[in-house]
Amino acid sequence: MKKKQKKKKSHVPIRLNILFFIVFVMFSALILRLGVVQIVYGEDYTKEVERTENLTVNTPVPRGKMFDRYGRTVVDNTPLRTITYTRMKGSKSEERLELAKELAKLMDMPTDKLTERDKKDFWIELNPDKAKKKITKKEWDAFEAKKLSDKDIYNLQLERVTAADLNQFTPADLEVLAIKRKMDGGYAMTPQIIKNKDVTPEEYARISENLDRLPGVDTTTDWERNYTYGDMFTSVLGRVTNADEGLPREQLDYYLVRDYNRNDRVGKSYIEQQYEDVLHGTKAQIKNVTDKDGNILEQVYLSKGERGKDLILTIDMELQKRVEQIIEEELKVAKSKGGTQFLDRAFVVMMDPRNGEILSMAGKQLVTNEQGQLQVSDYALGTMTSSYQAGSAVKGATVLTGFQTGVIQPGSKLIDEPIRIKGTPVKKSYKTMGEINDYYALARSSNVYMFRIAMEIAGAKYVPGAPLYIPSKAYDTMRYYFSQFGLGVPTGIDLPNESVGFKGAETKVPGLLLDLSIGQYDTYTPLQLAQYVSTIANGGYRIKPQIVKEVRDPVSKPGEIGKVVKSMEPVVLNRIDMSTEYIKRVQEGFRAVMSDSEGTATNVFGTAPYQPAGKTGTAQTFYDGPDEAKRKSGPKGTLPPTYNLTLVGYAPYDNPEVAFSVVVPWVSDDNNRINKVIGRRALDAYFELKKEAVKIEADPTIVPESTDNP
């Protein structure tokens, strides 16, 4: 028994020793592991614990392109080597200054945009002790007594920084200032462009190689708009803000709630502005992971983004180019002949009356440069932003108003002889025509026929030499029917800032209502006149003019166009409240204008093979243009008398595919044919280009004559 007990006791200490040894090994391993975690990985885990995820940053992408109706590139993007800086949260001015000094060693920075205020701010930052000495003891005492604020002290320092102080800056100092100014202008966690113009390959490479010691700096690719056709049509295409402008101040809230950054570039006028939502694209999204001090620990790309969608315009840029050349040539010819001292502009709008697509929207203006030389500038916007008295071109609307109100019928005959109203100058046509009907009234452009329609609409009984009472409602009646064609109301074009023209005051002066009937009272834009004649051409449908035909997905391969995202369907704004018989009657009169032996445009259009129809117009008016000296050159300092020459039309008359308007204001001689010549040449260009397109379609090996087409 004793031996067994002793043996049993001898085994207990061995097991305990084994157990203690195992525990010792485990604790040793644990201690070793904790040491490794703390010593080797401690910093990494500390950052992991302290890191926070910042809000997602949206990085802009290139804008969508624009093409004309035949796929020619109109607006593109040119890539630019770019240096950017992203300011971290908690970034200090001193740190940015040191970074700017490093960047200045690696790149050249333009300094031409630095202001005196920029330099003064920089001087104060570099010379804090000297800046303090510019404040007197009395002023410091006032500051201590809280009678002067920090801002007051700083403003005093700014005032006392002298030209001699600023002259201490070296060119290198100014480069540092220019770089830091860009850095300071950025927003936290948002890339700010430091330089994107004329960045050389060497600069780009040097900075790329040193990014590890340039916190927040990056090398990337930016873009700028490239206009394939130069300045042609750019006023309508619109402009984009630059990186310095950023979001327009007046629309800041509008864009910020749509996830734009303050320094984003956006369309600021016309097509670029109107279609901003389509053109700006989907931004690349980057999630910045930062520590508690705002230093970026990691960047996670959530999406690469996609450049803006492309626009297919309704414009035929080759036709646009031809029409602009025609206007420029005819303006120069007219000016060379003399007698046109007030003439300085002309406009042409061409559109498809079947669907409202604008084919050409051209305007040219003569301007005198600083050297006193006459130059021609683009004024395409004037087709929709400026308005003029259109003269007899509106007589089609007057005749149709007479039909609809029942004061005349197709074939109604009226006497064309001078109208004599007491207290009003004699009102007459360019010649006495005797008894004529509506057809000949349009073909020969009778004023008196239109006067009699207006008097009948007003219910005014005309007695030669006696007063004539005109109720104001007569103006409302005339304008109501005119508006059905688009005269005096918005056309609905998909562009901002359209003018609707000006209405003359409603008055009981009888002669003014008569003037309204022949287009010499209210004013209309060239675009309104094109919509008006299109409504007559297509049988009475007022169609919304359209400048954009399609929206398409972007593609990266040159020469290709993406699939259609949205197609702009024709929009009928209204069907004029008139019988089809009435419209056909006016169409016959318009055809006679250009083909009848006594038609007012037959001398220019009579030989046209494409069977045009239309209406000429001459409005007696006054020069009220931008030249103040010319405005005072009339009798006794009054506005000098001039003529507005207009023309509206379409072709072919039996199946119209193109409608147009021509407006040439402030011509000194009403016998000038510039409106007719421009109209004829513009239509010739349209049908010539149509023939060329048919030939190319039939034989793809034919190369177009123009070298402007990509």
TrEMBL record:
Catalytic activity: Preferential cleavage: (Ac)2-L-Lys-D-Ala-|-D-Ala. Also transpeptidation of peptidyl-alanyl moieties that are N-acyl substituents of D-alanine
Pathway(s) it belongs to: Cell wall biogenesis; peptidoglycan biosynthesis
Domain (Penicillin-binding protein dimerisation): residue spans on this chain: 59-300
Transmembrane portions of the chain: 12-32
EC number: 3.4.16.4
Coarse class of the protein's main subcellular location: membrane
The organism of origin for this protein: Ectobacillus antri
Occurrences of domain Penicillin-binding protein transpeptidase (ranges): 347-680
Protein location: Cell membrane; Membrane
Protein name per its UniProtKB record: serine-type D-Ala-D-Ala carboxypeptidase
Signal peptide: none
Taxonomy of the source species: Bacteria, Bacillati, Bacillota, Bacilli, Bacillales
Entry keyword set: Cell membrane, Cell shape, Cell wall biogenesis/degradation, Membrane, Peptidoglycan synthesis, Transmembrane, Transmembrane helix
